[in-house]
Amino acid sequence: MPSLSVFGAQWGDEGKGKIIDNLARDHDLVVRYQGGANAGHTVVVGGEKFVLHQIPSGILHDGKRNVIAGGLAIDPATLLREIDGLSERGIEVHPGNLCVSGAAHVIFEHHRRIDRLSERWLGDGRIGTTGRGIGPCYADKAARTGLRIADLVDPDRLRQRLGAVLAEKNALIGDVHGEETLDFEAELSAALAFGERLAPFVADTGAEVRAAYREGKRILFEGAQGVLLDIDHGTYPYVTSSNTGVHGIGPGVGFPPNQIDRAWGIAKAYCTRVGEGPFPTEDEGECGERLRDEGNEYGATTGRPRRCGWFDAVAVRYALELNGAQGWIMTNLDVLSAFSEISVASAYELDGRAVDRYPAALASLAGVVPRYESRPGWMEDITGVRHYGDLPGAARDYVEWIETLVGVPIVLLSVGPERDQVIPRGL
Ligand code: GDP
User: Fold this and answer.
1) Of 21, 26, 27, 41, catalytic
2) Which tens digit of pLDDT belongs to each residue from 55-72?
3) Per DSSP, which regions of 186-339 are E strands?
4) What pLDDT score was predicted for residue 280?
């Protein structure tokens, strides 16, 4: 089966970077298809930590083709910093191991400004965005006023289009928000410089990925954020601005959905969420705090403390079903070693009635009360375990119990941040 989609099955930060890096070994191409520098995929190799924002998590392996497809909203300054940062650490990034689609949209300074100004304008109703301009960039894409990487490498077109776009953005920034406007010539010269440096990486990535599939190459599609933050199927409006799961691959890459052979979700053994929006199992008390401390739950991109709570089987079941996942990967199982008793939300209650399906309406989701069940913990360090049979009995019971609640087999367990801290299930 040459193609595999791997996506976050919660609200992001599930450990996608680590798992994709691990799975990349068995693939030829690693393809990012949505989102932008709001992702912070952390990979730890021999104690050294790499945080990847836009470059696919296959970059740390030699001989892999890493593809930034057209569905992304690219921040060129961040991307170039990422390329330079990796090169300084001995990971050479060049047009042979990284390519960027000309169709990907470009984030400009005006997008970042408008992102922050809109959040300020929304006050208590704010989304809790990372402020990196991703929402406004996707909004321009839909409004057909966006600029793409192909425009960045075409100076005449860039001057003409950026001029037209910036006039309107400056009116919004200055006249509506009362803030200082942006200087066109300064923005243009920055964009031209970005275009010049990115030009060697620009490729027809869709054609390349489709050809790779025809040639029988193994393709790994790397999702960013999480399914519960999907713009169409997540907790709208507290979502990200793209399709985060399998559904994003078709348009995001230009790849036929019927050639996505397998899909696997990634979920932590508990839950976290960054930003605003409903989170049924959120624990604002001692347990949540312990999960945050034990799991070091602080954002890789923003440093923000993550909201924490017990595993939500209803939410993960929904995420896997929505994406037709045949398997999933449970991460951070080691974090639960600190707990003598472990709870899981196996169902919800809404207005006194049991609900076993994830509610479609935000208002219903905000009103649900999780129904918890508990199991004894194992209270033993499991970070060195590599074979399923070597896990303590209580840990295996926990894994198999969750698997039954979710109804989809777990294919891989993760018991630490290092690349090789994984336990295959042998399924
Ligand atoms: P991503 O955006 O989904 O890649 O997730 P993040 O990188 O934001 O957060 C995951 C964090 O957990 C990172 O610091 C990882 O190094 C770390 N991590 C990944 N898998 C495991 C695991 O199994 N156990 C522990 N303790 N940490 C993990």
Assistant:
1) 41
2) 999 999 999 999 999 999
3) 202-203, 219-222, 262-268, 270-273, 307-312, 327-331
4) 95
How high is the pLDDT of residue 217? 98
Distance, in Å, from the CA atom of 308 to the CA atom of 297, rounded to the nearest integer, reads 8
306 and 391 in a common domain: yes
Atom number, ligand 1, closest to the C-alpha of residue 51: 7
Is there an atom of ligand 1 within 6 Å of 335 CB?
yes
CA of 334 to the centre of ligand 1 (A): 11
Number of H helices, E strands in the chain: 13, 19
Alpha carbon of 94 to ligand 1 centroid (Å):
27
- Residue 125's pLDDT is what? 78
Among residues 109, 177, 99, the alpha carbon closest in space to that of 147 is found at 109
Which positions of the chain have pLDDT values less than 70? Answer: 300-301, 427
Q: How far is the CA of 335 from the centre of ligand 1 (A)?
A: 11
Residues 176 and 236 in one domain: no
To 10 degrees, the CA torsion angle through 146, 150, 155, 160? -30
Q: Supply the pLDDT for residue 426.
A: 73
Are 258 and 187 in the same domain? no
Ligand 1 and 8: CB distance under 6 A: yes
CA distance 417 to 303: 17
- Residue 401 is predicted with a pLDDT of 97
Q: Which atom of ligand 1 is nearest to the CA of 43?
A: 16
Domain encompassing residue 303: 267-424
The verdict on whether 13 is a catalytic residue reads yes
Q: Which atom of ligand 1 is nearest to the CA of 331?
A: 23
CATH number of the domain bearing residue 280? 3.90.170.10
